[in-house]
Design goal:
Helix content: 25-40%
Distance between the termini: 21 Å
CATH architecture of one domain: 3-Layer(bba) Sandwich
Strand order of the largest sheet: 5-4-13-14-15-12-17-16
Strand content: 15-25%
Radius of gyration: 22 Å
CATH topology of one domain: FAD/NAD(P)-binding domain
Bound molecules: flavin-adenine dinucleotide
Largest sheet: 8 strands, mixed
Structural class: alpha/beta
Length: about 425
């Protein structure tokens, strides 16, 4: 955008990882005016871990957030620093194989720490809280978003980063003549908790269980269940997620009025894993007050854009967590849009083409990640139609299964988007001072 033109006004709805990461990068450019609206009274994340594959780490670094990330990120210590997960039989913890992510390994953070680290870099005046978007209208190249408190905001581009229960998604789908998409229950629930690693070490020692299982990320696999562990907060805590699936219904139903997250007793969790081996059970016995999450995802959407409104992150492609890839896809969206919108060649006239390139280039990949996340859950729980419970095939499959996901060249997608826009070279905007 030329300097004599007014700045492009960008509104972002939702202050989760996707929205905040995008806002942080966009607000650096003097040719953009950015406002972020969050419905909660403050930024906040749940007290759990989140793990990032090499593609996510590249997006984080590309968004200029590498330093903030490294301050809070964990990496397994040598000589296992490149291990993403070791795979084990849930019944007796015997070793089935490992997946290696060279140079990154299991890169994970405590969610709240990561969001705090990002938010600390957000300039004052960008974010507004207690702003729940309820309705969107588009007229003459301007977007008007209405909030539950009766106020409104007008902008040139509105970005829906409002999560799996997105209010903006129906506007985008309706604009394309499509029916609204509601999240679908997967039949899988996850018990979550954080364990003090010293406590777990003592419990394992007392049971004669190898302490290696504390230090290196583990995934215990069984029929219709799996349990993962990885360290966070410099290894002081171990993040635990224990998944259990009911596959008796082809289309499982979660009652509309039932909460997706609730506190449960340790007894309930232990009963769900009654037939599992000592390592798995001792681990779960260290979680006195687990929470239970009903896991939902979205069907693949036929489009992420309507006019000047675009969806990113879970609002566009919420997925099951079995590849640890949901937040990563939101970060890839943010990186992709930030690189194009941060270019001085963007203006109101080429915005439609820019958004079309985003939809064409990002959507097929995000949909594939959604699809494979579901399929990976089946594989972990011995329900893959080819692999089943064949441990040899399972180990072989898992060794290379994530390569395509982690090695994707997002900069090549950006180069294609620029070529479509007729932007021969990237031209980064002028950074704001201070
Ligand atoms: P959200 O985090 O949902 O943020 C949306 C924000 O919008 C919220 O702050 C919300 O309050 C706000 N909002 C909602 N509606 C409105 C409105 N109408 N107006 C204003 N604001 C609104 N991903 C990984 O990459 N790695 C992992 O290891 C991983 N593990 C996971 C484990 C589990 C058990 C689960 C359930 C998910 C996991 N994920 C993982 C997925 C990841 O958590 C999500 O993909 C990611 O947090 C989505 O971020 P987001 O910013 O797009 O959406």
């Amino acid at each position: 955008m030329k300097n004599n033109k007014p700045g492009l006004r960008i509104g972002i709805i939702g202050g989760g990882i996707s929205g905040v990461a995008l806002a942080l990068e966009l607000c650096r450019y003097s040719h953009l005016q950015v406002q972020l609206f969050e419905c909660a009274p403050a930024f906040g994340e749940v007290g759990a871990g989140v793990s990032f594959g090499p593609n996510a780490v590249r997006a984080i670094v590309g968004l200029g957030l590498g330093e903030a990330y490294l301050q809070v990120a964990d990496r397994t210590s040598e000589p296992w620093e490149d291990v993403w997960f070791e795979w084990r039989r849930g019944r007796d913890a015997s070793y089935l194989g490992a997946t290696i992510a060279p140079g990154v390994g299991q890169s994970s953070v405590h969610r709240a720490d990561f969001l705090d680290a990002l938010v600390n870099h957000l300039p004052k005046g960008i974010a507004q809280f207690r702003k729940r978007a309820t309705q969107v209208e588009q007229k003459g190249g301007e977007v008007q978003v209405l909030f539950a408190d009766g106020t409104e905001h007008r902008c040139d581009l509105l970005i829906g980063a409002d999560g799996i229960k997105s209010a903006l998604r129906s506007h985008v789908l309706e604009g394309q003549g499509l029916a609204p998409q509601v999240p679908r229950f997967s039949g899988t629930c996850a018990y979550r908790g954080m364990v003090d690693s010293l406590h777990l070490r003592e419990a394992y020692r007392a049971q004669g269980i190898d302490e290696h299982l504390v230090d290196v990320p583990q995934m215990y696999l069984g029929l219709d269940g799996h349990i993962l562990t990885f360290p966070v907060r410099n290894g002081r805590l171990i993040n635990v997620v224990a998944f259990i699936s009911d596959r008796s219904e082809p289309k499982p139903n979660w009652p509309a009025d039932a909460p997706w997250v609730r506190d449960v007793s340790q007894r309930e969790m232990l009963d769900a894993f009654a037939g599992w081996g000592d390592a798995a059970r001792t681990l779960l016995e260290c979680i006195p007050a687990p929470t239970l999450w009903a896991l939902h995802d979205l069907a693949e959407l036929p489009g992420y854009v309507h006019g000047r409104v675009v969806l990113i992150g879970d609002a566009a492609h919420a997925m099951l967590p079995h590849q640890g890839a949901g937040a990563a896809q939101g970060l890839e969206d943010a990186y992709f849009l930030a690189r194009l919108l941060g270019d001085t060649q963007v203006d109101a006239d080429n915005l439609a083409e820019l958004l079309e390139a985003y939809d064409d280039l990002r959507r097929p990949r995000a949909c594939r990640v959604q699809r494979t996340s579901r399929a990976t859950g089946e594989l972990y729980e011995f329900r893959d139609p080819v692999v089943g419970a064949n441990e040899h095939l399972l180990g072989e499959n898992l060794a290379t299964r994530f390569d395509w996901l982690w090695s994707h060249d997002l900069d090549a997608d950006l180069a294609e988007a620029r070529a479509r826009l007729g932007w021969e070279n990237g031209s980064r905007g002028v950074l704001r001072q201070g």
